Amino acid sequence: MKIVTIVGARPQFIKAAAISRVISDKYAGRVAEVIVHTGQHFDAGMSQIFFDELAIPVPKYNLDISGGLHGAMTGRMLESIEKVLVAEKPDWVLIYGDTNSTLAGALAAAKLHIPVAHVEAGLRSFNMRMPEEINRIVADKISTLLFCPTSTAVANLKSEGMTSGVVNVGDVMYDVALFYKDAAKRQSKILESLGLKIGAYALATCHRAENTDDLVRLKEILSGLTDVSQKMPVVLPLHPRTRKLIAENQMENLLSTLKVTQPLPFLDMVALEQDARIILTDSGGVQKEAFFYGVPCITMRDETEWVETVQSGWNRLVGANCAAIQAAVTEILQSLPAKPDSSPYGDGDAASKILEHLIR
User: Fold this and answer.
1) Exactly one of 118, 207, 239, 357 is catalytic; which is it?
2) Tell me: the pLDDT tens digits for 187-199?
3) If you ran DSSP here, which 8-state letter would residue 171 be given?
4) DSSP state of 57
5) C-alpha to C-alpha distance for 162 and 135, rounded to whole angstroms
6) Helix ranges, the chain (H)
7) How many alpha carbons fall within 13 Å on the CB side of residue 339?
8) Does the pLDDT of residue 352 top 70, yes or no?
C-alpha cells in the first residue's frame, strides 16, 4: 500500500511524525509513505528542524510554496500536488488539520478519485471568518475516512450529516506528547539558556491572523503579556510573520519586558511547556499540549475547537483583551484547577489505529 502524506506547517510535521514512526516500526515493507512538503512554513526554524528532531523521513517532494493570499497559495499547491499524485498513483492521500496545504491536498486527491483520509477531522470553531474553519469543513466533506480526535468531533460531523467513514481514533498529538515528554526533559537545555526556573515563568505564543492582522487585538495581547511579565518572566517564541507585523507597526516597545526568542525546536518547546507555571496562546496545538502536561492555559481567542480543555477547567478563553488576560492569570495563580481523571483524547495509540483502518 502506498500513502502520500501532505504536510506544510509545524503542527502537521508533529502529527506526521507519529504516523511515520508506526509505519517504520510495524509496517515496513507493507506500507510505503511518500511525504510531500508544500513549503507553507518556509522558515528553517519552523520547518526543517522539526523533520530533524522528530526523525520524520525526508520529503520526496518539496514544493517550496509559501506567501501570498490564501487563494493564490492554495491554487499553486493544488496544481503542484496534482502532478505529484498523477506520478505516484497512491492508494491513499493523508492530510492533517486545517491549513491551506490540507485543503489543496484534499482537493487534488478528490478530483483524481484518490481516497482521502483526514487526520483531525470534525473540529469546528463555528467561526467562518477563520480560514482554518473553511479549510477543515471542505476537507471533511470530500474525505473518505475521517479520523476524529474526540467524541465532540464525531458529534460535529454527525450534525452535518456525515457518519460514513467516521472513526474516533483519539488524538495523534497525544501520542507525540507521551512519546517525547521524557526526551525533552533529558535533551533540552532551554531553561538554563534562558535563565528560567521550573514552575516560575509563563510561556506565550501568538500567530493567528485574527490576532496579528488586527492591530487593536495584537496590542491588547502584547499589553497583557507585558502585565504578566511584572509577575514572572514571559517567554515568547515569536512567529516570523508576527515579528514582521510588530516591526512594521512600530510596536517593538511592547516586547521590551518579554523574553522574545526565535521559533524554537520541538523538544525545547515541549520542555518549556512541561515546566511552565502558565501558558498563554492562540495556538490550537499548544492548548492541547498544555492540557496533556497539566499546565493551566489561557487562550487568547474568542473560541476554541478544543472545547474539552475548557470544560476540564485547564483552559480559559479570554479573547484579545488585556484586562481579561490579567484577570485570568491572577485567578490561576491563586488557585489551580483539579486535574481530570482521564483524557478525552484517547490512549496515546491514535497513529496505530489510523494505520490499521487504512490497511483494512
Assistant:
1) 207
2) 999 999 999 999 9
3) -
4) P
5) 16
6) 10-26, 48-53, 70-88, 100-111, 131-141, 151-159, 172-187, 190-194, 209-212, 215-228, 240-248, 266-275, 284-292, 307-311, 322-334, 350-359
7) 9
8) yes
Cβ neighbors of 247 (< 8 A, separation 6 or more) are none
Q: With a cut of 60, say whether residue 47 has pLDDT above it.
A: no
Q: Give residue for cell 480526535.
A: 149
> How many angstroms separate the CA atoms of 155 and 353, rounded?
20
pTM attached to this predicted model: 0.90
Give bridge partners of residue 281 from the DSSP assignment: 299
207 noted as active-site residue: yes
pLDDT of residue 353: 98
In sequence order, the β-bridge partners of residue 117 are 94, 145
Closest CA to 183 of 268, 263, 261: 268
Instruction: Considering only the C-alpha atoms of the chain, give the largest distance between any 2 of them, rounded to a whole number of Å.
Output: 59
Read off the pLDDT band of 44 (50, 70, 90): low
pLDDT at 154 > cutoff 80: yes
DSSP class per residue in 194-237? HT--TTS-EEE----HHHHS-HHHHHHHHHHHHHHTTTS-EEEE
Confidence (pLDDT) at 351: 98
Give the other-Cβ count within 10 Å of 266's Cβ: 22
In sequence order, what DSSP letters do the residues of 103-119 get, joined into one string? HHHHHHHHHTT--EEEE
- Report the relative pairing of strands 202-204 and 259-261 from DSSP bridges: unpaired
Write the DSSP symbol of residue 335: -
- 99 touches 8 (CB < 8 A): yes
- Domains in the chain, CATH or no CATH each: 2-171+346-359 (3.40.50.2000), 183-334 (3.40.50.2000)
Residue 256, C-alpha cell as written in the block: 521590551
Cα atoms in the Cβ-side hemisphere of radius 13 Å centred on 277: 21
